[in-house]
Amino acid sequence: MGKFNEYHHAYLCGYYYDELKKAYGEQGRLAFIKATQFYGEQRGGRMALRAIRDGKDLSYSSYFHYVEWKGTPGFAKIERSVTDGVMLSENFVCPWHTALKEMELTECGAVYCRHIDASLVRGFNPELKFEAETVLHTSSSCKLKFHIGKPIEAFEKGDAPIVYDMEYHCAHLFWTFAEVIKNIFEAEGNAVIHNVKRRFAEKYSQDMIEALEKYRDCNFTYLPDESIEAIDC
After folding, report:
1. pLDDT digit string (tens) for 107-138?
2. By the 8 A CB rule, do 190 and 182 touch?
3. What is the 3-state secondary structure (H, E, C) of the chain?
4. Are 103 and 21 spatial neighbours (Cβ–Cβ below 8 Å)?
5. What is the dihedral of CA 25, 29, 31, 36, to 10 degrees?
6. Residue 16 in contact with residue 32, Cβ under 8 Å?
7. I need a surface site. Which of 64, 98, 172, 183 has the fewest CB within 10 A?
8. What is the distance between the alpha carbons of residues 74 and 77, in angstroms, rounded to a whole number?
9. Which of 144, 149, 96, 156 is nearest to 120 (CA)?
10. How far apart (Å, rounded) are the C-alpha atoms in residues 146 and 23?
11. For a pLDDT cut of 90, what percent of the chain falls above it?
């Protein structure tokens, strides 16, 4: 079995979007948006729980410190600048854009990226101001604006953030989307989930589906046992 990375995450997004649109049309698109929002808010919420536990505030300094994952080197090209208290994060190369373009699902990317970062910020602290000005799927770059106010504070070197591997994050996305789909469409939604599993296994491997199955009973709203090697849900 290969190691999970951002491309696997993007393919899961794409398969869910495609299957929901084929099965339910506009209703499926709205379900995808709601699942994306739930997923992002849960991850942002975990970041906030960890910051509060560590005695930190819920500023953008804490937000960027507790981000929960590190991008694979070479997968993205991001430039950041700060003007008048606003951080512009501009992304020119992105694995989600690359994968969804390969899948001919740039529509999915435009929808997902319009909502995911806003949901992360909202889940962390709804009082923080954020704007997704453009997304790479419909523009020359993603332009994300974080209204940071004061400069981002660098935490002590020994105060390392918790980083989970992409298997955990792919499982989080897979099961959160599955739960939302079953909640909206009830038993009928199982066909969408089954098709996502089938297509993902055909693209990658059945072993990777079995790895995701280990997280079936996780409650992703709360902090897991923080071991990168073996996460106890």
Report:
1. 999 999 999 999 999 999 999 999 999 999 99
2. yes
3. CCCCCHHHHHHHHHHHHHHHHHHHCHHHHHHHHHHHHHHHHHHHHHHHHHHHHCCCCCCHHHHHHCCCCCCCCCCCEEEEEEECCEEEEEEEECHHHHHHHHCCCHHHHHHHHHHHHHHHHHHHCCCCCEEEEECCCCCCCEEEEEECCCCCCCCCCCCCCCCCCHHHHHHHHHHHHHHHHHHHHHHHHHHHHHHHHHHHHHHCCHHHHHHHHCCCCCCCCCCCCCCCCCCCC
4. no
5. 160
6. yes
7. 183
8. 7
9. 144
10. 36
11. 85
Question: Where residue 150 falls among pLDDT bands split at 50, 70, 90?
Answer: confident
Beta bridge partners of 131: 145
Cα–Cα dist 53/35, whole Å = 27
Q: In whole angstroms, how large is the CA radius of gyration of the chain?
A: 17
Cα distance between residue 138 and residue 98, in whole Å = 13
Which residue, chain included where needed, has tokens 């690359």?
A: 98
Q: 8 is written with which tokens?
A: 């696997």
Q: Do the beta carbons of residue 81 and residue 87 sit within 8 Å?
A: yes
Which residue from 215, 118, 114, 226 is spatially nearest to 171, judged by alpha carbons?
A: 215
